[in-house]
Each structure stands twice: as C-alpha cells, then as structure tokens.
Amino acid sequence: AKENQEEAKMAGHGKSDILTEEQVAEVREIFTLFDKDSDGLVDVQHLGFMMRSLTLNPTEKEVEKLQSEICKTHQGKFDQQEFLTVVARRGKDTDTLEELEGAFDVFMEDKEEKKLGEMRFMFLMTSVGEKMKEEEVKEILQDCDIVHEGQINIKEFAKIIMSKQSSLILLL
C-alpha cells in the first residue's frame, strides 16, 4: 500500500492528476499483464488497448499522439511509470457518475426525481452526440429494465452504464 501511495503521488504532476491507491494497483496490474518478458517495458503498440482496458477510451488519434510522446525514452517501449503518468493525465478526463447524470439534466422533465420520458430518451440517444441506432437503444432499455411508467430514471441508467464500464476491465 505504501508503494502505491508513492506511485500515486509520482504519477501525477498536479493535484487533479493524482491517482487513488486502487487506481494505481489497477494500472500496475494491467501493465504487468502486458509486460510478457518481465523486463519492465511494454511495446508502445499495446498502449491504446491497455488504456481502453482501464475504460479511458482514447481515440486512435489520441493514442498515436501519446505513443509518439511516450516512446522517446525506450525505443518503441514504455515503462510502468510512464504508463502511470499517461493514465493519471488522461484519467481526469473520464466521466464520473455525476457528470453522466448531468449530461441529461437539461432534457429532463422531472429534474428533482432525475426522470426522462422514454420517447425523449430515445430521441436523444439516436440524434445527439454519438448517435445510436433505435434498435440499440431499445436493447439497452430492455436489458437494463429502467423504464417505469414511461419514464427512465437517469440515476439508475448512469449507475448501470458506469458499472458496465467497470466490468469491462474484468473481462479483459
């Protein structure tokens, strides 16, 4: 635990970049999985996949930029400390439960109860931001069982989405 605390402090450059002990342990575990020959280095081509396994979901362009920044030291490879630094910088940009809920606030009919009509939800998911197909939205609503009397509890929806993101790490 003491080692994780030190790495958490060293990984970030500013207060908002600091990782929790749990996050550092998770990053170290992912790094170890990819450090096949146990030399403390991982090939830069694995960076995107490693970040996605931590649900950071960078675009290909972001991965390419990070790869060019990170592989200057070890000729196409990076060490655990470099990976911790990248994750700490990138991690502060990920959605929190509150941010995900907040994204729907402006569209909610019942802001106090955090509810959104099913039809409005369907419209938003198929026409705003990263558009989904209507069938995909229907499948989500059916799988999540969050529609009650034509209303969707956005708090429930956000919790389910965040928990599904977290469980993706366990599958990898």
Structure overview:
With 172 residues, this protein is mainly alpha-helical. It contains nine helices and five strands, in the order ααβααβααβααββα. The chain has a three-stranded antiparallel β-sheet with strand order 3-5-4. It has a two-stranded antiparallel ribbon with strand order 1-2. Strand 4 and strand 5 (151-153) form a beta hairpin.
Question: What structural keywords apply?
Answer:
9 helices, two-stranded antiparallel sheet, 3-stranded antiparallel beta sheet, 8% strand, elongated
Instruction: Compute the number of helices.
Output: 9
Tell me the overall shape.
Answer: elongated
Helix fraction by DSSP (H/I, runs of at least 4): 55-70%
Main β-sheet description: 3 strands, antiparallel
Q: What is the rounded Rg?
A: 19 Å
Give a short summary of the structure.
A 3-stranded antiparallel sheet has the order 3-5-4. The chain has a two-stranded antiparallel sheet with strand order 1-2. The protein is elongated, with a radius of gyration of 19 Å. Helix 1 (2-11) crosses helix 5.
Write the layout of secondary structure elements.
Elements lengths: L1 H10 L9 H14 L6 E3 L3 H7 L6 H11 L6 E3 H12 L5 H6 L12 E3 H10 L6 H11 L2 E2 L2 E3 H18 L1
Antiparallel strand pairs: 1-2, 3-5, 4-5
